[in-house]
Design goal:
The protein has a 7-stranded mixed sheet, with helices on both faces. A two-stranded antiparallel ribbon has the order 1-2. The protein starts with a helix and ends with a strand. It has 2 domains: 65 residues; 208 residues, Rossmann fold (3-Layer(aba) Sandwich). By secondary structure, the protein is α/β, with parallel strands linked by helices. It is 43% helix and 18% strand. β8 and β9 form a beta hairpin. The chain is built from 12 helices and 9 strands. The structure holds glutamine. Glutamine binds next to loops.
Length: 286
């Protein structure tokens, strides 16, 4: 089986399930993961022979894609901020918007040394690992309330050769996480907490709703800012003077968020747009 024949076959098989654009994304992901080919190589070598074992794996991937399982869970990995991160259904698949959050933090803080950073609700660990990799002088901590998530996060720190200290912790609890017997104070707190409203389900795809962890996505309809309230409280207790809280936010909740800041007498904050022009990141200065 040559690469060009394989690509034709993949397009035919998935035609009724996905758009042409989505199918090309799968083709790039599949041959990237299985044969370490980048996009240019995939297009430049139509006659490349695909080993029969690899083609067998592709066929099983196609069967899973037809059940709308996300390609990232099928392959068990995703590229985030130029790094390979392992993922499984106990963690949310890192999104491009979250790369923008990471990029803002690096840009705004790269000249500061000796920073202590904590990522709350780290999930796959993608934010903590990308920050540790790009801010090598910082000390990075991360928490999650799920053991399964911390297992994935630890694998990702090892895989990318960075040190992150992990701790099981629920941000809704009022006590602070303890690392090796001490409770550090931080210069930067970062979080991409759950923020999708149950009423937004209608706009979401099956791949997300059927496979990704609900508890990483949804908040109660009547308490949409529950995690941001907890993060502001945590920040007020655990940030060093001049410290900053950076969060990913629901594009539709910016004005609610501003009202919440006003109630808490928080005066200094900025809201950033993502590449699609949506309100996506907030920075609060304490
Ligand atoms: N942006 C994600 C989505 O649309 C949600 C991420 C989150 O809840 N923190 O599925």
């Amino acid at each position: 089986m040559t690469l060009s024949k394989a690509i034709e076959k993949i397009k035919q098989e998935l035609d009724l399930y996905y758009s042409v654009h989505e199918i090309w994304v799968f083709i790039h992901e599949i041959f990237g993961a299985l044969m370490s080919l980048d996009r240019a190589q995939i297009h430049a070598h139509p006659d490349l022979e695909i080993p029969s074992g690899t083609w067998k794996r592709v066929r099983s991937i196609l069967r899973e894609l037809k059940s709308y399982k996300p390609i990232q869970y099928i392959l068990g990995q995703v590229n985030f901020f130029g790094l390979t991160m392992r993922v499984n259904p106990s963690v949310l698949i890192p999104r491009p918007e979250t790369e923008e959050l990471v990029s803002i933090i690096i840009e705004e803080n790269k000249t500061r040394s000796g920073l202590k950073i904590i990522d709350i609700g780290t999930g796959s660990g993608c934010i903590a690992v990308a920050l540790a990799k790009n801010m090598p002088e910082a000390q990075v901590f991360a928490t999650d309330l799920k053991k399964g998530a911390l297992q994935v996060a630890k694998i990702n720190a090892n895989l990318n050769d960075v040190r992150v200290k992990y701790q099981l912790h629920d941000i809704i609890a009022t006590y602070s996480p303890v690392f090796n017997g001490s409770t550090p104070s931080y210069d930067i707190i970062v979080s991409n907490p759950p923020y999708v409203l149950p009423s937004q389900r209608r706009q979401m795809s099956r791949t997300v709703l059927d496979y990704e962890p609900e508890e990483a996505l949804f908040v109660p309809e009547n308490e949409p800012l529950i995690f941001y309230e907890a993060l502001c409280y945590f920040a007020s207790k655990n940030l060093n003077p001049g410290g900053k809280l950076y969060c990913e936010i629901n594009e539709d909740m910016a004005s609610e968020m501003i009202k919440m800041f006003q109630r808490r007498s928080i005066e200094s904050f900025s809201i950033y747009h993502d590449l699609s022009g949506k309100n996506r990141v907030v920075r609060v200065d304490f």
